[in-house]
Automatic annotation (TrEMBL):
It comes from Phytoactinopolyspora mesophila. Residues 1-27 are annotated as: Disordered. Residues 75-289 form the SsuA/THI5-like domain. Gene3D superfamilies: Periplasmic binding protein-like II. It is found in: Periplasm. InterPro entries: SsuA/THI5. Keywords: Signal. Belongs to the bacterial solute-binding protein SsuA/TauA family. SUPFAM superfamilies: Periplasmic binding protein-like II. This is SsuA/THI5-like domain-containing protein. GO terms for cellular component: periplasmic space. It comes from the Bacteria.
Amino acid sequence: MSGDRSSGRSKRPPRSHEGEQMRHRPTLARVRPMAVLALTAAVVASGCGGDSAGDAEGGGGELVTINIGTLPTANAAAMYLGMQEGFFEEEGLVVEPTVLQGGNEIITGLVSGDYDFGFVGYISAGVALSQNVPVCVVTASDATGTSAEDDWQALVASEGSGLDTPQDFAGSTLGINALGGVAEVLILAALDAEGVDVNTIEFIEVPFPEVPAAVSAGRIDAGYGAEPFITTVLDQGGEVVYAPQSELAPEYPNGSYAASEQFIAENGDVIDSFTQAMNRSVEFARDNEDAVRDIIPTYTEIDPDIAERMRLPVFTSELDEQAIDEQMGFLEQYDIVQAAPTADELICG
């Protein structure tokens, strides 16, 4: 499909709410409690000081410790490579990672002061900011692949599923890792752009590790998987049937590092140092595939054999404002939030 993202959004009519099955949304009701939780944490923590970057800054050349909330996923590899290669230390920083299970948990930790930086998706950050949770994106991290043949996040199904074209997804039941999250939004956007009646699609929550079994058992028509679970399905004889993000555009923005607005206001030098180190780390990861494959098993439970064969994220330091702006528009178009921020508002000034 066309890579003209700005024109693509204007051609997609808003979804009809009439007769809609409520099992796959209202997404606004699902998302709001997590955002409110994060905002509450920010209010509670507003008078509390941390013991990380803000306290160490100005210590006569001493290394500053930064706490980062991260995920046990392949696309976090760039940060770990930066630690291994000494890029953060060269910028005067020591990274203390805390592995969490989701973006909402990380954002809550950012505004409560538990973490100085957090590894989150643009959509998660946009949902938070739309609910007045004071976070913004500092740097880019990774993007999706270029097609269904190399994308590391995709819909997978059993062989012979009959899901051969986008139109075949009408009336299907799809498993996604979180209702109202990145997967649901971008699947809807990509299929909508292909003229599919997305109101006929039903979403149920299936965590990434459970996708291979759910597909094999026929509990879902297809499941949204991320590596290494795509490789697991392929090893079991399944197939990739659709890659929504790379259908929207090759190397579509996916992950980023964010911080709270309060931390940014109080730690300008640390922000600059982190940005330099993270961008170096991302570019190193992009240019050194073998190093990425070697480091993934050191901080995840991914088997080294799988790490050698799995599809890898596309690492990029580019903040693609046009594509990020499009994603923010999808949040409104599919009723995830009432008023989404622009890319300019989401990216730290």
